[in-house]
Structures are given as C-alpha cells and as structure tokens.
Design brief:
The protein is built from six helices and no strands. Helix content is 81%, strand content 0%.
Length: 302
C-alpha cells in the first residue's frame, strides 16, 4: 500500500520529472505523510489512555475508573508511545533539514544546467520551490504535534504513577485494617487461653492430690498409710519428668537452629527454604544434641 501511494505521487507530478531534485522532494512528501499517520496513531492511543484514566478536559469524551485499569500495561503503552514520538521528532527534524538544503541549493543546480535546458527547468523549479516550502511548513506543524503529544504522554505517565501510589495506599490501608482485626482476634484468643491456664492452675493441685491419694500404694484403711513400695512411684516419676523436659528443650533448640539455617541458606541462594536434605538434617541434629554440649563442657573446663 505504501508503494502504491508513492507511485500515485509520482504519477501526479510527472510534469516535474525533468528537475534533478524531483525524486527527493516526492520521496520526502511521501515520508512526511507516513509520519503524519504515525502521529495520528499515537494521538489515538493517547486519547484512549486519557479516557481510561479520566484525566482530560473534554466533557463529551468518556472518563473511566483509573483504579480498574491495568496500570502495568498502561505504563508500557505510554513508554512505547513516548519512544515512538521521540523517534518521529528526530526524523521530522532531519526531513526539515533535507528540505531546507534542497531549497538552498536549487539556485546552484539551475546555474549548473546547460543554457538550452534552463527555460524548461525554470517553471519546474518554481513549482518545486513552492512545494518544498509547503512541505517545510507541514513538517514544522507535525513537529509541533509531536512535542504536544510528548507532553501529553509525560503527563499521563505521571498520572498513572500517582494512581499506582494511591492504589498501593488503599491496599496498605486494607492490610492494616485486616492486621488490626487479626490482632483483636489474637487478643481474644489469648484472653481465652489465659482463662484456661488460670482454671488449670486452680484445679491442678487438687487433681494431683486426688490422683496421688487414689493410688494403690496408699492404704487408707490401715494405720500405716504408705506402703513399703511407695518409693517406686518417685523413682519412675522424677526421671520421666526430667526426660520430658529435656526432650522439650532439645526440640525448641532444634527448631530455632533449623529455622536459622534455612534462612541463611535461602539468603545465600544455596537452597530454598524447607528443602534441606535429610542427611544434612540428621548430621546437624547429631551435632546440635551431642557435640555442642561437649564443646561447652570442654570450654568450661579450659
């Protein structure tokens, strides 16, 4: 389609084909029309973004909800539009320089043409000079449109960033409200646990005494209540209590050590959290339970 448009321009201006600058001017005219189409495309994209953000001054155009738009895609579209407009600004400026150069050197070309061809070339040169001046004015107006659309894109980009910050603030407010609700629920749960703990502390002594007095090791019908084997209860209970407390201490210490090790490994990028090998876990457990107490004992003795 672009080739057909160029051929149409050549056919319309075939009477000027005897001038040396005919082809550059025709090509420049064709390129300026392509630039105008690209500017129109960028303008339509910006119109759509302005309608999406609702940030424009035209009452007859729709205004969307900015918080419902895809802000990442909108930012990409604005950056792409700004880059396109920047390239167009450079190319249009180059096109203006080319037309000004042709216009400046047309007289030199006319002087360099043989005398027998000057009479036929004079009219072509007048027409080309007028065309070049019109094209320069056209390119300057396109350049103004480019600058204007660049400012629109910059403004919309700032608007999108502003709405992104507002959306983040609204999200943070929602998270803060949820955190407050969770904290209140945790406080209620904590109060309930404290109540259970207090009730347990109140009834535990009585429960222990009743269980102790109900053992067969005590014979309340005899004068001597305690039997000779009552010591067996304490011989089993006291070591078992210490064993349970020791296992609990080892478990707490192992959990803290394992969590710290996983955090260090994840921070260094060696393994992901929760993916330590079973062999490594077993070796670490042995070192933690068996070797570290020995090191502490050796250090105390030293």
């Amino acid at each position: 389609m672009e080739i057909s448009g160029l051929l149409t321009l050549l056919a319309r201006a075939k009477d000027l084909a005897d001038h040396p600058m005919f082809l550059p001017v025709i090509v420049g005219n064709f390129v300026s029309k392509l630039f105008a189409q690209k500017i129109d495309s960028a303008n339509r994209r910006l119109n759509g973004i302005e309608e999406t953000t609702g940030m424009h001054t035209f009452d007859w155009r729709p205004k969307g909800n900015p918080f419902a738009m895809d802000m990442l895609q909108t930012t990409r579209s604005l950056n792409s539009c700004s880059a396109t407009l920047g390239v167009l600004e450079m190319r249009i400026s180059s096109l203006i320089q080319m037309f000004e150069t042709i216009l400046r050197y047309n007289d030199y070309i006319y002087d360099a043409v043989p005398t027998d061809r000057k009479e036929g070339l004079r009219e072509s040169q007048y027409v080309l000079d007028d065309s070049i001046e019109n094209l320069i004015n056209l390119c300057k107006s396109l350049l103004l449109r480019v600058v204007y659309n660049q400012k629109r894109a910059t403004t919309q980009l700032a608007v999108v960033y502003n709405f992104m910050q507002q959306k983040d603030n609204l999200t943070n407010i929602g998270v803060a409200a949820d955190s407050r609700s969770i904290a209140q629920a945790s406080k209620r749960d904590s109060s309930a646990m404290k109540t259970i703990a207090v009730l347990t502390m109140v009834f535990l002594p009585g429960t222990f005494i009743s269980s102790l007095f109900a053992m067969p090791l005590m014979q309340w019908q005899n004068d001597v209540v305690l039997t000779s084997r009552f010591w067996i209860y304490w011989a089993i209970t006291i070591p078992l209590t210490f064993l349970v407390l020791l296992l609990w201490a080892i478990w707490i210490r192992w959990s803290i050590y394992l969590q710290n090790k996983e955090d260090d490994a994840a921070r260094k990028g060696e393994v992901k959290s929760g993916q330590l090998s079973p062999k490594a876990l077993f070796i670490d457990f042995v070192q933690l339970v068996w070797l570290m107490p020995r090191k502490k004992t050796a250090a105390a003795m030293g």
